[in-house]
Amino acid sequence: YQATYGASKAFVLSFSQALWAETRGTGVTVTALAPGPTRTGFVDALDADVSQTIYGRLAAPEPVVAAGLRALDRGRPVVVPGLRNRLMATASRLSPGWVGALISGRMLRPAGNPRAHAGSQ
User: What contacts 39, CB < 8 A, 6 or more positions away?
Assistant: First the structure.
């Protein structure tokens, strides 16, 4: 459903962390912002009913921006604003990759998809 998008996000996170490490002490600051579902034009551009997916409940952009700027000012390599997003990020790091893939598939499955079981993806 969004495999390419997810892979791209994983690359950006890894790349940002590497740049953060490589530029420490140079005056350059790198922070990866992992905002989670946030009210932007992204969901509108999907042109689909996302009410029953992870995008059904969107965070306001203002606290996300504030968290990103605070992390940048503090020199943090990654920031995941919002309790729900932090819990999901922590759970994904603590579980096997295939479990996260199944959960993501279930959460991102478009409404009305005939596949009822996440394992049948």
Answer: 58, 59, 60, 61
